Amino acid sequence: MNNAPESDEKLLIKHDSKYYIMSCDIGTSSLRCIIYNEKAIKICTTHEKIKLLCPQPVSNLAASEITCLGLSTQRASFMLWDKITGEPFHNFITWKDVRADTMINDWNSSLLMKAVRLGTGFLYHIMRKKRYLAASILKFQNTHVNMRLKWILENNKKVKEAINKKTLMFGTIDTWLVYQLTNGKVYATDPSNASGTGIYDPYLKEWSGFLIKLINLPKDIFPKVRNTYGKLADISPQHFGASIPITAVISDQGAAMFGGCGFDQGDVKITLGTGAFFDLNTGHEPHTSINGIYPVIGWEDETGIIYMAEGSSNDNGTVIQWGKDMKLYDDYAETSALAESVSDSGGVYFIPSFQGLQVRKYFFN
To answer: Which residues of the chain fall short of a pLDDT of 70?
Structure first.
């Protein structure tokens, strides 16, 4: 019993028996083991849950029977790898990573950024172009790729060497997956994933040459931006035994809007997951706001790009897990009962802001 799970019950009696009986009950959902002494007195018991494997009716499908594959991925998580060897230089750096926080604060408070905001604000008043209005309130955020990418470019020796050799490749999760599934034949992303990086200009519909130059990023490491759906690529047969067409690549929030049939301007969806995301379909025009709501791309089809205005709280699901880790409850299901056990909060509020707050101004503390 030395390797058994922790006992459910403490030792009930002092025992000096020389002989013991072990009884095992192998049930459908759990395995239970009980130890008795020679007088049939229970000494201790332990149990372990059994994970049931339930093959689905389609589990025996052949790869050749799969007509196509669509990919929906989280945005703004990225990787750098070597063009020659295909080897990654680091693990995925996710959208919740805060390693560049000091750099972000320094840049946001710099004289250069103040000059950028002032200059683009002046251009907006002269030319009335919304992209200048958006730039006039530009502040870097941890959730965007731009500064996390700059950080890894400056702090990873192998990455620096790859830049000099012109062998560095950049990709968000969708780009990496398609690149691997096609054995390096297709190096691309879609507008919905590109717009989540903070490096793509949703107004000009291209990688932002201005921002790339502003923060000194290599301009030749970014993938081609292609339509969200259509015949995008073919998976190499070596992976699944047959060549499967990839016909859609889209970000998670764009996929949620599309999957919920939010095709029309004015449609709204709210997604509750790791973060909470509010998105409004704004049609073919990007929404420009100075109040913390950002223009992102939902998808691109034959009619053009469909934009969304987005607000987010980055720690929706994270804080539920945090509460469990802090022993506030043992099971997620208990949270509803706890919330309903009191008539009000007594004026006390907990704001889940581990990754900052996206309000009129972005705060991270």
So the answer is: 1-16, 355-365
